[in-house]
Amino acid sequence: MTLIDTELSPIPVTIVAGFLGAGKTTLLNHILSAEHGRRIGVLVNDFGSINVDAELINQVEEGMMTLANGCVCCSIRTDLIQAVLQLAERDDPPEHILIESSGVADPAGVYEAFLQTEIRNSVLVDGVITVVDAVHVLGLPDAEAKLARTQVSGGDLIVLNKTDLVDSDTLSNVKDWIREVKPTVQIFDATFGRIPMEVLLGVEHSHESSPGDHTSSAHHHHDLQFETWSYESSEPMNLGLLQQLLNHLPSTLFRAKGFVYAADKPNSRLLLQLVGRRAVLSVDRPWGDSPPQTRLVFIARSETCDFDAIQRVLESCKEVVKSS
Protein backbone atom coordinates (compact mmCIF):
# COMPACT_ATOMS: atom_id res chain seq x y z
CA MET A 1 0.00 0.00 0.00
CA THR A 2 1.30 3.44 -0.94
CA LEU A 3 0.62 6.40 1.38
CA ILE A 4 0.73 9.80 -0.31
CA ASP A 5 0.40 13.23 1.32
CA THR A 6 -1.69 15.77 -0.58
CA GLU A 7 -3.07 19.18 0.32
CA LEU A 8 -6.27 18.92 -1.74
CA SER A 9 -8.59 16.11 -2.86
CA PRO A 10 -6.95 14.66 -5.99
CA ILE A 11 -9.05 13.44 -8.92
CA PRO A 12 -8.62 9.68 -9.44
CA VAL A 13 -7.05 8.73 -12.78
CA THR A 14 -7.37 5.31 -14.42
CA ILE A 15 -4.99 4.37 -17.24
CA VAL A 16 -6.48 2.23 -20.03
CA ALA A 17 -3.65 0.27 -21.66
CA GLY A 18 -3.50 -2.37 -24.37
CA PHE A 19 -1.98 -3.26 -27.73
CA LEU A 20 -3.01 -1.62 -31.00
CA GLY A 21 -6.53 -2.66 -32.01
CA ALA A 22 -7.39 -4.30 -28.69
CA GLY A 23 -10.46 -2.10 -28.23
CA LYS A 24 -9.37 0.71 -25.91
CA THR A 25 -11.11 3.41 -27.96
CA THR A 26 -14.26 1.29 -28.28
CA LEU A 27 -14.37 0.97 -24.49
CA LEU A 28 -13.94 4.73 -24.07
CA ASN A 29 -16.58 5.48 -26.71
CA HIS A 30 -19.00 3.41 -24.66
CA ILE A 31 -18.19 5.41 -21.51
CA LEU A 32 -18.59 8.74 -23.30
CA SER A 33 -21.99 7.80 -24.72
CA ALA A 34 -23.52 6.09 -21.68
CA GLU A 35 -25.96 7.65 -19.22
CA HIS A 36 -24.15 6.93 -15.97
CA GLY A 37 -24.63 10.18 -14.06
CA ARG A 38 -20.92 10.87 -13.56
CA ARG A 39 -18.68 13.65 -14.85
CA ILE A 40 -15.84 11.72 -16.46
CA GLY A 41 -12.87 13.18 -18.28
CA VAL A 42 -11.45 11.05 -21.09
CA LEU A 43 -8.06 11.65 -22.71
CA VAL A 44 -7.48 9.99 -26.08
CA ASN A 45 -4.58 9.87 -28.53
CA ASP A 46 -6.68 10.38 -31.65
CA PHE A 47 -9.55 12.84 -31.26
CA GLY A 48 -10.98 11.74 -34.61
CA SER A 49 -11.40 8.15 -33.40
CA ILE A 50 -14.10 9.13 -30.90
CA ASN A 51 -17.46 8.11 -32.35
CA VAL A 52 -20.14 9.96 -30.40
CA ASP A 53 -23.57 10.81 -31.83
CA ALA A 54 -23.75 14.46 -32.84
CA GLU A 55 -26.79 15.13 -30.65
CA LEU A 56 -24.76 14.16 -27.57
CA ILE A 57 -22.11 16.82 -28.20
CA ASN A 58 -22.64 20.17 -26.50
CA GLN A 59 -19.43 21.92 -27.53
CA VAL A 60 -16.12 21.27 -29.28
CA GLU A 61 -13.23 23.69 -29.02
CA GLU A 62 -9.43 23.55 -28.89
CA GLY A 63 -9.23 19.75 -28.77
CA MET A 64 -11.90 19.44 -26.07
CA MET A 65 -15.38 17.92 -26.52
CA THR A 66 -18.09 18.57 -23.92
CA LEU A 67 -20.95 16.06 -23.91
CA ALA A 68 -24.56 16.26 -22.77
CA ASN A 69 -24.06 13.52 -20.13
CA GLY A 70 -21.46 15.63 -18.30
CA CYS A 71 -18.39 13.89 -19.74
CA VAL A 72 -15.48 15.74 -21.30
CA CYS A 73 -13.20 14.28 -23.99
CA CYS A 74 -9.79 15.78 -24.77
CA SER A 75 -7.00 14.94 -27.18
CA ILE A 76 -3.47 14.26 -25.91
CA ARG A 77 -1.31 16.51 -28.03
CA THR A 78 2.27 16.66 -26.84
CA ASP A 79 2.16 16.78 -23.04
CA LEU A 80 0.05 14.18 -21.23
CA ILE A 81 0.44 15.77 -17.80
CA GLN A 82 -0.53 19.19 -19.14
CA ALA A 83 -3.63 17.72 -20.77
CA VAL A 84 -4.64 16.07 -17.49
CA LEU A 85 -4.09 19.28 -15.51
CA GLN A 86 -6.15 21.19 -18.08
CA LEU A 87 -9.06 18.89 -17.26
CA ALA A 88 -8.47 19.01 -13.49
CA GLU A 89 -8.36 22.82 -13.41
CA ARG A 90 -11.70 23.35 -15.18
CA ASP A 91 -14.42 25.26 -13.35
CA ASP A 92 -16.40 22.00 -13.37
CA PRO A 93 -13.63 19.39 -13.08
CA PRO A 94 -14.44 15.72 -13.74
CA GLU A 95 -14.99 13.31 -10.88
CA HIS A 96 -12.76 10.71 -12.55
CA ILE A 97 -10.30 10.77 -15.46
CA LEU A 98 -9.64 7.94 -17.93
CA ILE A 99 -6.50 8.00 -20.08
CA GLU A 100 -6.06 6.02 -23.28
CA SER A 101 -2.45 4.88 -23.28
CA SER A 102 -0.70 4.52 -26.63
CA GLY A 103 -0.98 1.03 -28.14
CA VAL A 104 2.80 0.73 -28.13
CA ALA A 105 3.35 2.14 -24.63
CA ASP A 106 4.40 0.37 -21.45
CA PRO A 107 1.73 1.41 -18.87
CA ALA A 108 4.41 1.52 -16.17
CA GLY A 109 5.96 4.51 -17.91
CA VAL A 110 2.62 6.32 -18.03
CA TYR A 111 2.03 5.53 -14.35
CA GLU A 112 5.45 6.87 -13.34
CA ALA A 113 4.69 10.19 -15.06
CA PHE A 114 2.05 10.81 -12.39
CA LEU A 115 4.40 10.34 -9.45
CA GLN A 116 5.65 13.92 -9.74
CA THR A 117 5.05 15.67 -6.41
CA GLU A 118 3.85 18.88 -8.09
CA ILE A 119 0.72 17.23 -9.54
CA ARG A 120 -0.32 15.03 -6.62
CA ASN A 121 -2.69 17.69 -5.28
CA SER A 122 -4.61 17.62 -8.57
CA VAL A 123 -4.65 14.00 -9.76
CA LEU A 124 -3.70 10.56 -8.48
CA VAL A 125 -3.55 7.32 -10.47
CA ASP A 126 -5.75 4.66 -8.88
CA GLY A 127 -4.85 1.85 -11.28
CA VAL A 128 -4.18 0.45 -14.75
CA ILE A 129 -6.76 -1.49 -16.77
CA THR A 130 -5.31 -3.43 -19.71
CA VAL A 131 -7.49 -4.35 -22.70
CA VAL A 132 -6.50 -7.61 -24.45
CA ASP A 133 -7.61 -8.67 -27.94
CA ALA A 134 -8.87 -12.26 -27.64
CA VAL A 135 -8.69 -12.75 -31.40
CA HIS A 136 -5.11 -11.70 -32.16
CA VAL A 137 -3.03 -11.63 -28.98
CA LEU A 138 -1.72 -15.22 -29.26
CA GLY A 139 -0.63 -14.67 -32.87
CA LEU A 140 1.46 -11.54 -32.40
CA PRO A 141 5.07 -11.59 -33.69
CA ASP A 142 7.80 -11.88 -31.07
CA ALA A 143 8.51 -8.16 -30.56
CA GLU A 144 4.82 -7.25 -30.37
CA ALA A 145 4.10 -10.26 -28.15
CA LYS A 146 6.77 -9.09 -25.71
CA LEU A 147 5.12 -5.67 -25.50
CA ALA A 148 1.68 -7.24 -25.03
CA ARG A 149 3.07 -9.29 -22.13
CA THR A 150 4.48 -6.11 -20.60
CA GLN A 151 1.08 -4.41 -20.90
CA VAL A 152 -0.64 -7.36 -19.23
CA SER A 153 2.00 -7.47 -16.52
CA GLY A 154 1.43 -3.77 -15.82
CA GLY A 155 -2.35 -4.09 -15.60
CA ASP A 156 -4.21 -4.22 -12.30
CA LEU A 157 -7.32 -5.59 -14.05
CA ILE A 158 -7.66 -7.21 -17.49
CA VAL A 159 -10.52 -6.61 -19.93
CA LEU A 160 -10.51 -9.51 -22.39
CA ASN A 161 -12.24 -7.99 -25.41
CA LYS A 162 -13.81 -9.58 -28.55
CA THR A 163 -14.67 -12.78 -26.69
CA ASP A 164 -17.65 -13.24 -29.01
CA LEU A 165 -15.29 -13.73 -31.96
CA VAL A 166 -13.37 -16.76 -30.64
CA ASP A 167 -14.33 -20.32 -29.72
CA SER A 168 -14.17 -21.69 -26.19
CA ASP A 169 -10.78 -23.39 -26.68
CA THR A 170 -9.15 -20.18 -27.93
CA LEU A 171 -10.71 -18.20 -25.09
CA SER A 172 -9.35 -20.70 -22.57
CA ASN A 173 -5.88 -20.55 -24.15
CA VAL A 174 -5.84 -16.74 -24.02
CA LYS A 175 -6.83 -16.76 -20.35
CA ASP A 176 -4.11 -19.32 -19.60
CA TRP A 177 -1.59 -17.03 -21.32
CA ILE A 178 -2.76 -14.04 -19.28
CA ARG A 179 -2.50 -16.01 -16.03
CA GLU A 180 0.96 -17.21 -17.01
CA VAL A 181 2.01 -13.56 -17.30
CA LYS A 182 0.14 -12.41 -14.16
CA PRO A 183 -1.26 -15.35 -12.17
CA THR A 184 -3.67 -13.59 -9.76
CA VAL A 185 -5.04 -10.83 -12.01
CA GLN A 186 -8.82 -10.60 -12.47
CA ILE A 187 -10.04 -11.07 -16.07
CA PHE A 188 -13.33 -9.60 -17.31
CA ASP A 189 -14.79 -10.93 -20.57
CA ALA A 190 -16.14 -8.22 -22.88
CA THR A 191 -17.65 -7.66 -26.30
CA PHE A 192 -17.35 -4.26 -27.99
CA GLY A 193 -15.47 -3.01 -24.92
CA ARG A 194 -18.58 -3.08 -22.74
CA ILE A 195 -17.86 -3.70 -19.08
CA PRO A 196 -19.60 -2.48 -15.92
CA MET A 197 -18.83 1.03 -14.73
CA GLU A 198 -18.02 -0.53 -11.36
CA VAL A 199 -15.04 -2.32 -12.91
CA LEU A 200 -13.68 0.86 -14.47
CA LEU A 201 -14.45 3.39 -11.76
CA GLY A 202 -15.67 1.63 -8.65
CA VAL A 203 -18.95 2.68 -7.04
CA GLU A 204 -20.14 5.85 -5.41
CA HIS A 205 -20.53 5.28 -1.69
CA SER A 206 -23.87 6.08 -0.08
CA HIS A 207 -23.69 8.27 3.02
CA GLU A 208 -27.15 7.31 4.24
CA SER A 209 -26.21 4.37 6.47
CA SER A 210 -25.17 4.91 10.05
CA PRO A 211 -21.81 3.95 11.62
CA GLY A 212 -21.50 0.24 12.22
CA ASP A 213 -23.78 -0.77 9.36
CA HIS A 214 -22.37 -3.57 7.24
CA THR A 215 -24.34 -4.38 4.11
CA SER A 216 -23.84 -6.38 0.94
CA SER A 217 -25.87 -6.54 -2.24
CA ALA A 218 -25.58 -8.45 -5.49
CA HIS A 219 -25.73 -6.71 -8.86
CA HIS A 220 -25.88 -8.13 -12.36
CA HIS A 221 -24.41 -6.62 -15.51
CA HIS A 222 -24.62 -8.61 -18.75
CA ASP A 223 -22.93 -11.94 -17.97
CA LEU A 224 -20.84 -10.51 -15.12
CA GLN A 225 -22.23 -10.95 -11.61
CA PHE A 226 -20.63 -9.02 -8.80
CA GLU A 227 -21.50 -7.72 -5.38
CA THR A 228 -20.65 -4.69 -3.32
CA TRP A 229 -20.14 -4.60 0.41
CA SER A 230 -19.74 -1.53 2.59
CA TYR A 231 -18.10 -1.03 5.95
CA GLU A 232 -18.41 1.93 8.30
CA SER A 233 -16.87 2.68 11.69
CA SER A 234 -16.40 5.76 13.83
CA GLU A 235 -13.38 4.26 15.62
CA PRO A 236 -9.85 4.98 14.31
CA MET A 237 -7.95 2.32 12.37
CA ASN A 238 -4.33 1.20 12.75
CA LEU A 239 -2.73 1.77 9.33
CA GLY A 240 -0.20 -1.01 9.74
CA LEU A 241 -2.93 -3.56 10.42
CA LEU A 242 -5.08 -2.16 7.62
CA GLN A 243 -2.18 -2.52 5.20
CA GLN A 244 -1.81 -6.19 6.15
CA LEU A 245 -5.48 -6.71 5.37
CA LEU A 246 -5.23 -4.97 1.99
CA ASN A 247 -2.20 -7.08 1.08
CA HIS A 248 -4.11 -10.31 1.73
CA LEU A 249 -7.53 -9.63 0.23
CA PRO A 250 -8.89 -12.34 -2.10
CA SER A 251 -7.89 -11.86 -5.74
CA THR A 252 -11.58 -11.93 -6.72
CA LEU A 253 -12.06 -8.65 -4.83
CA PHE A 254 -11.09 -6.24 -7.58
CA ARG A 255 -11.94 -2.75 -6.30
CA ALA A 256 -12.27 -0.85 -3.05
CA LYS A 257 -12.56 2.83 -2.31
CA GLY A 258 -13.60 5.16 0.45
CA PHE A 259 -12.32 7.14 3.41
CA VAL A 260 -10.25 5.99 6.37
CA TYR A 261 -10.15 7.42 9.88
CA ALA A 262 -6.60 6.52 10.91
CA ALA A 263 -5.16 6.59 14.42
CA ASP A 264 -1.82 7.47 12.82
CA LYS A 265 -3.29 10.65 11.27
CA PRO A 266 -6.46 11.35 13.30
CA ASN A 267 -6.98 14.91 12.05
CA SER A 268 -6.91 14.08 8.33
CA ARG A 269 -9.34 12.15 6.15
CA LEU A 270 -7.49 9.49 4.16
CA LEU A 271 -8.71 8.41 0.73
CA LEU A 272 -8.30 4.71 -0.15
CA GLN A 273 -8.37 3.53 -3.77
CA LEU A 274 -7.68 -0.13 -4.57
CA VAL A 275 -7.66 -1.60 -8.07
CA GLY A 276 -6.58 -5.22 -8.35
CA ARG A 277 -3.54 -5.57 -6.07
CA ARG A 278 -2.62 -1.86 -6.23
CA ALA A 279 -3.72 0.08 -3.13
CA VAL A 280 -3.11 3.82 -2.80
CA LEU A 281 -3.91 5.72 0.39
CA SER A 282 -3.68 9.51 0.13
CA VAL A 283 -4.02 12.19 2.79
CA ASP A 284 -7.13 13.91 1.51
CA ARG A 285 -8.17 16.84 3.74
CA PRO A 286 -8.87 17.71 7.41
CA TRP A 287 -12.09 16.29 8.82
CA GLY A 288 -13.21 19.80 9.73
CA ASP A 289 -16.76 19.83 11.06
CA SER A 290 -17.45 16.30 9.79
CA PRO A 291 -17.20 13.51 12.37
CA PRO A 292 -14.21 11.24 11.60
CA GLN A 293 -15.42 7.97 10.15
CA THR A 294 -14.08 5.08 8.07
CA ARG A 295 -16.40 4.43 5.09
CA LEU A 296 -15.28 1.79 2.60
CA VAL A 297 -16.95 0.03 -0.33
CA PHE A 298 -15.59 -3.27 -1.70
CA ILE A 299 -16.50 -4.83 -5.07
CA ALA A 300 -15.94 -8.51 -5.81
CA ARG A 301 -17.20 -11.29 -8.01
CA SER A 302 -20.42 -12.59 -6.52
CA GLU A 303 -20.15 -15.26 -3.82
CA THR A 304 -16.34 -15.40 -3.96
CA CYS A 305 -15.50 -13.40 -0.82
CA ASP A 306 -16.19 -14.08 2.83
CA PHE A 307 -17.20 -10.55 3.80
CA ASP A 308 -17.96 -11.66 7.36
CA ALA A 309 -14.28 -12.63 7.69
CA ILE A 310 -13.18 -9.32 6.14
CA GLN A 311 -15.43 -7.50 8.60
CA ARG A 312 -13.86 -9.36 11.54
CA VAL A 313 -10.37 -8.41 10.36
CA LEU A 314 -11.42 -4.78 9.88
CA GLU A 315 -12.81 -4.77 13.41
CA SER A 316 -9.44 -6.03 14.65
CA CYS A 317 -7.73 -3.10 12.89
CA LYS A 318 -9.41 -0.59 15.20
CA GLU A 319 -7.18 1.25 17.62
CA VAL A 320 -7.95 3.47 20.58
CA VAL A 321 -6.34 6.92 20.25
CA LYS A 322 -4.01 7.42 23.19
CA SER A 323 -4.51 10.65 25.09
CA SER A 324 -1.46 12.87 25.35
TrEMBL record:
For this UniProt record, give its keywords in alphabetical order, as a comma-separated list.
Answer: Chaperone, Hydrolase, Nucleotide-binding
Question: Which part of the chain is the CobW C-terminal domain?
Answer: 226-318
GO CC entries: cytoplasm
Q: Which SUPFAM superfamilies match?
A: Hypothetical protein YjiA, C-terminal domain, P-loop containing nucleoside triphosphate hydrolases
Cross-referenced SMART domains, in alphabetical order?
CobW_C
Q: Does this UniProt record's set of keywords contain Glycosyltransferase?
A: no
One Pfam annotation reads CobW_C
One term of GO molecular function = hydrolase activity
**Hydrolase among keywords:** yes
Q: Catalytic activity, per the record?
A: GTP + H2O = GDP + phosphate + H(+)
Q: Which InterPro entries match?
A: CobW-likC_sf, CobW-like_C, CobW/HypB/UreG_nucleotide-bd, P-loop_NTPase, Zinc-reg_GTPase_activator
> What's this protein's family per the entry?
Belongs to the SIMIBI class G3E GTPase family. ZNG1 subfamily.
As for what it does, the entry says: Zinc chaperone that directly transfers zinc cofactor to target proteins, thereby activating them. Zinc is transferred from the CXCC motif in the GTPase domain to the zinc binding site in target proteins in a process requiring GTP hydrolysis.
Q: What is this protein called?
A: Putative GTP-binding protein YjiA
Gene from which this protein is expressed: yjiA
